[in-house]
Design a protein that fits this description.
Low-confidence stretches: 1-52
Order of helices and strands: HHEHEHEHEHEHEHEHEHHEHEHEEHE
Number of strands: 13
Distance between the termini: 112 Å
Largest sheet: 7 strands, mixed
Radius of gyration: 32 Å
Structural class: alpha/beta
Shape: elongated
Helix content: 40-55%
């Protein structure tokens, strides 16, 4: 009887030990004895998902003046940031109405208001932003040459500070060739631009070199602002066979002045589509919407920590298109060469 009780006790102990072992295996499965969630549900190390965090950002937009090119760049920028950070971006778009001192006032307001990023649309807003802050990221667009705009000698393509952005520069040698394509027998070219815009001076200096290599005689006709613009354009039209206007914000905002003097009288070739649509025969142009959109993509990368503005190279338009103005061509009795697209007019 004693042996039977002893045997029963041994069997009972063995069963208890077996159950304890099974229970230990069950607790250990999936979390290895700790409270961490399964590995597949954890966020990857270093991941940043701005959508998941719901973080919001403030962006100040300073546009120099209202005209089609700059408007398109602002539209592209806005579409990009809203598409990539839906519901997370508060935009403050302001327009300086062509007044350079107003750009500084707008930019200073952005800085004091603590925006997360400034988008400077055109040279004057970029210069104001670069002077106002060394900390807030600044992205320019519709800037022809950043080295010229910011006074950087031997510019390498990276500003290296809190500034980067996109350029609206189309190949200047091809713009000169465009004039030769339409007017191979012309002798003189008048170069019209605003002397207050350093990037305009840069463009006409280079276009002049290309044109003079082709045998044209070139004369620069700078105007200081809208007060002397009409008289300067008239002088250029009287003295030249063909006129050229670079990507120039003052000219773009007042292309009607040029058109009133030159339509049906003298051909004008332009550095961008907005000016050409107002007064020009033809242009080799870019999409300002596209460079604005690219600027927006750059802004999102900066805001979400994917890129450092100081390391960002200036981006350029991926393609260039030859376009002509049907109404101006009709007034001058011109037929566009093959390969030109008509500028859409309202």
């Amino acid at each position: 009887m004693m042996k039977k009780k002893l045997l029963t006790l041994v069997l009972t102990l063995a069963m208890a030990l077996s159950l304890a072992a099974c229970g230990g295996d069950s607790a250990g499965s999936g979390n290895s004895g700790n409270n961490a969630p399964p590995a597949e549900t954890q966020e990857p190390a270093g991941s940043t998902s701005s959508d998941a965090s719901g973080e919001t950002y403030k962006i100040g937009i300073c546009q120099l003046a209202p005209h089609p090119a700059l408007d398109a760049a602002t539209e592209g920028f806005t579409d990009a940031v809203n598409a990539l950070l839906p519901g997370q971006v508060e935009l403050d778009p302001q327009n300086a109405a062509g007044d350079t001192p107003t750009c500084a006032t707008i930019i200073n307001g952005f800085v004091s208001g603590g925006v997360d990023l400034i988008m400077a649309n055109a040279t004057a807003p970029l210069q104001a932003a670069a002077s106002a802050t060394a900390d807030t990221p600044v992205l320019g667009t519709s800037i022809t040459e950043y080295g010229v705009a910011l006074g950087i000698d031997n510019f390498s393509g990276v500003v290296g500070s809190n500034v980067s952005g996109t350029s609206d520069l189309a190949p200047l040698d091809q713009q000169a060739q465009m004039i030769q394509e339409w007017y191979p027998d012309a002798k003189t070219v008048g170069l019209i631009f605003c002397s207050a815009e350093p990037n305009s001076q840069y463009q006409v200096d280079n276009v002049q070199k290309y044109l003079e290599d082709m045998g044209y005689t070139c004369t620069q006709f700078p105007f200081s602002d809208t007060n002397d613009m009409a008289s300067v354009v008239q002088s250029a039209a009287d003295a030249s066979d063909v006129l050229y206007v670079p990507t120039d914000n003052t000219a773009a905002n007042n292309s009607g002045i040029i058109d009133n003097i030159c339509r049906g009288v003298k051909p004008v070739f332009a550095g961008e589509e907005g000016i050409c649509g107002g007064c020009g025969v033809a242009t080799l142009s870019i999409s300002y919407y596209d460079i604005g959109y690219k600027t927006g993509e750059m802004a999102v990368d900066i805001l979400t920590g994917k890129a450092q503005v100081s390391e960002m190279a200036i981006e350029y338009a991926p393609q260039f298109v030859k376009k002509y103005n049907p109404a101006i061509c009709e007034a001058l009795g011109l037929t566009a060469p093959e390969g030109y697209e008509a500028i859409a007019t309202e």
